[in-house]
Amino acid sequence: MSQAPKIYALFGGAANDSLYPATLNAAFAAVGLKWPYVPFRADAETLAGLFARLEADGLAGANFIYPCEEAAVALCNELSAEAAALAAVDTVRCTPGVVEGFKLDVYAFSRSLDELRPEVAGKPVLVLGAGPAGRACGLALERAGAAVAYAVPNVTRPRPGVSTRATVIRMEDASAFMANKKPVALINTTPAAPAPDAPPLSYDAIPSNCFVYDLSCFPRTPLLDAAAARGLRHADGLSMLLYKSGRAFEIWTGGEAPFDVMRRAAAAEIAKRDA
Question: How open is the CA angle 201-119-86, to the nearest 5 degrees?
């Protein structure tokens, strides 16, 4: 791998709270690369200017989290098929004159499904939220053969990448949907701390055979606590984050990601915050 000095970054509203810096700095160090991976707090309005300044200083790649993924599309002159379909970018690779955009959530969530093995083919699944991450999860679920429904605050908002086969319902109807349609999986892609005016979700309405997945990695969410209390199969988003950061590492370096190192780094960071 090249030892030329490079800079890598994470942009987003909660960039300083993310596990990406811990996992990717550990990965670079494990293979002898002294490349800093630095979080920068940004939003859709400040992203372009900050990105341009860092690109001039040697930015070679970046990740994007809420609320920057849709704004990141405008930074790119090449897009992967998933990024183009979803109109969102969570990873870029920068080379002279070219910024390539990727939406690795689709890959990472698919890998998580392969690992966790919920039986979704031909069965209803409910995704809470249809932002960039929610749409990516929905795309991965449709590829796995699931009948996908999205619960959203505003059913009239355009949602690139949501297929005509999918059902879109109001968030306040999510509990009734679960009671009536009995989804085999519930995927939460909304913030760990919901907005004060967000409609409550009835945890009792979650079917007894439902697999519950929450994209949040830390802290543990009330949804996962409720799933555990009811004895439901459940998982947080740590494996998805690791698959996404590992794939970003591979795109940037051309080498194999040291997943064991990255997993240990994430676990150590979570333990430190939990202490």
Answer: 65
Sequence letter at residue 67: P
Q: Is the peptide bond before 219 cis (omega within 30 degrees of 0)?
A: yes
pTM for the whole thing? 0.93
Give residue-wise pLDDT tens across range 15-47.
999 999 999 999 999 999 999 999 999 999 999
Q: Which DSSP category does 167 fall into? A: E
Between CA 216 and CA 241 the distance in angstroms is 9
From the options 3.40.50.150, 1.20.210.10, 3.40.50.300, 3.40.50.10860, give the CATH code of 7-104+239-274.
3.40.50.10860
What number is the average pLDDT over the span 88-101? 97
Task: Measure the CA–CA gap between 42 and 39, rounded to whole angstroms.
Answer: 9
